[in-house]
TrEMBL record:
<comment type="similarity">
    <text>Belongs to the ABC transporter superfamily.</text>
</comment>
<keyword id="KW-0472">Membrane</keyword>
<dbReference type="Pfam" id="PF00005">
    <property type="entry name" value="ABC_tran"/>
</dbReference>
<dbReference type="InterPro" id="IPR017871">
    <property type="entry name" value="ABC_transporter-like_CS"/>
</dbReference>
<keyword id="KW-0547">Nucleotide-binding</keyword>
<dbReference type="InterPro" id="IPR003439">
    <property type="entry name" value="ABC_transporter-like_ATP-bd"/>
</dbReference>
<dbReference type="GO" id="GO:0005524">
    <property type="term" value="F:ATP binding"/>
</dbReference>
<protein>
    <submittedName>
        <fullName>ABC transporter ATP-binding protein</fullName>
    </submittedName>
</protein>
<feature type="domain" description="ABC transporter">
    <location>
        <begin position="7"/>
        <end position="258"/>
    </location>
</feature>
<dbReference type="InterPro" id="IPR003593">
    <property type="entry name" value="AAA+_ATPase"/>
</dbReference>
<keyword id="KW-1003">Cell membrane</keyword>
<dbReference type="InterPro" id="IPR027417">
    <property type="entry name" value="P-loop_NTPase"/>
</dbReference>
<dbReference type="InterPro" id="IPR050388">
    <property type="entry name" value="ABC_Ni/Peptide_Import"/>
</dbReference>
<keyword id="KW-0067">ATP-binding</keyword>
<dbReference type="Pfam" id="PF08352">
    <property type="entry name" value="oligo_HPY"/>
</dbReference>
<dbReference type="InterPro" id="IPR013563">
    <property type="entry name" value="Oligopep_ABC_C"/>
</dbReference>
<keyword id="KW-0813">Transport</keyword>
Length: 328
């Protein structure tokens, strides 16, 4: 861990308990986030992205449970903190933005009241006028017109895109060091999505806030992130700088995701899909879990799960990586 490391995740495991036993939705995730860094966590539905994000800040409820690993924030293991200590951290030094802004916003309170509460819960000595001004500035920062009067509106008086901006403004209020954002723009139309991505990136850069952006969309990652972690069946199967990974994927799964991106095919050509379905929690293969869908699979891939390999800054889990001259 270096002095620029904000978050260091080692071997994180999160299980869901069922009558048939415990199944690992997150299966040994390692991740390092530096101060101010933007990381895209990408993968198909069910790969374990959200469960990873929620596990980092102690938001996993039964039947789920974090069963292994460390989540070191400034070197302190968040898994060792009490619920009260975690609550102190959340909404202050670490913030979460959810896909549905109504998970953040209380429908029966005016937006201004909720924003004031977000400040005063953590900093009760803040003078009211100063807190209100900060709320106003935060709304203006995320592009909400006439912020002063909007503080007196209820969440239902905002459009979906504006509501998500309010949720982002609340997340940014106390200038967190880390934001975990779980697909916050997925439900929005592409123009609004692009604006919000641009604003988030700008705010994070200005405030040196690190961001883990969970998404199923590599296009979003390309726009926003410095590094990308590609997740499949509970594991990070490839990690590296965005440009490098998108231009020269090493893992066949990353290559498949890239080939299935709209715009990756020639005009008139059919989009390539990754064959087969992502495995369910209870239906994972032995050995490499991507093997049944992998065009390069070899019988030996069934023997054991590929360990993490490293070339330069790139990490991957594959016995037959797609190593071109540029990546060697
Ligand atoms: N409360 C729960 N009970 C049982 N299994 C769960 C629960 N929540 C998540 N899972 C399982 O954990 C696995 C990972 O889910 P997760 O929501 O993290 O995926 P994801 O990659 O974020 O997908 P999506 O993009 O659809 O949100 C899935 O197989 C899911 O069915």
């Amino acid at each position: 861990m270096t002095d620029t490391t904000l978050l260091q995740v080692n071997g994180l495991q999160t299980a869901f308990h069922t009558e048939e036993g415990a199944w690992l939705a997150v299966d040994g995730v390692d991740l390092q986030v530096k101060k101010g860094e933007i990381i895209g966590l990408v993968g198909e539905s069910g790969s374990g992205k959200s469960v990873t994000g929620f596990s980092l800040i102690g938001l996993i409820d039964p039947p789920g449970e974090v069963v292994g690993g460390e989540v070191l924030f400034h070197g302190q293991d968040l898994r060792q903190l009490s619920e009260e200590q975690l609550r102190q951290l959340r909404g202050d030094r670490i913030a979460m933005i959810f896909q549905d802004p109504l998970m953040t916003l209380n429908p029966v309170l005016k937006v201004g009241e909720q924003m004031m509460e977000a400040i005063l819960t953590h900093y009760p000595e803040t003078p009211k006028a100063e807190a209100r001004q900060r709320c106003c500035d935060a709304l203006a920062q995320v592009g909400i017109p006439a912020p002063e009067s909007r503080l007196d509106n209820y969440p239902h008086e905002f459009s979906g895109g504006m509501r998500q901006r309010v949720a982002i403004a609340i997340a940014m209020l106390n200038k967190p060091e880390l934001i975990i954002a779980d697909e916050p723009t997925t439900a929005l139309d592409v123009t609004i999505q692009a604006q919000i991505l641009y604003e988030m990136q700008k705010l994070c850069r200005e405030q040196n806030t690190a961001l883990i952006w969970i998404t199923h969309d590599l296009g979003v990652v390309a726009e926003l992130a410095d590094h990308v972690a590609v997740m499949y069946a509970g594991k990070i199967v490839e990690y590296g700088a965005v440009q490098a990974v998108l231009q020269n994927p090493i893992h066949p799964y990353t290559e498949g995701l890239l080939n299935s991106m709209p715009g990756s095919a020639q005009p008139g050509a059919r989009l390539q899909q990754i064959d087969g379905m992502a495995p369910t929690l209870t239906g994972r293969e032995q050995g490499c879990t991507f093997r049944p869908r992998c065009p390069y699979a070899h019988p030996s891939c069934a023997q054991s799960a590929p360990p993490v390999e490293q070339i330069g800054q790139r990490q991957y889990r594959c016995y037959f990586p797609l190593l071109k001259e540029e990546t060697k």
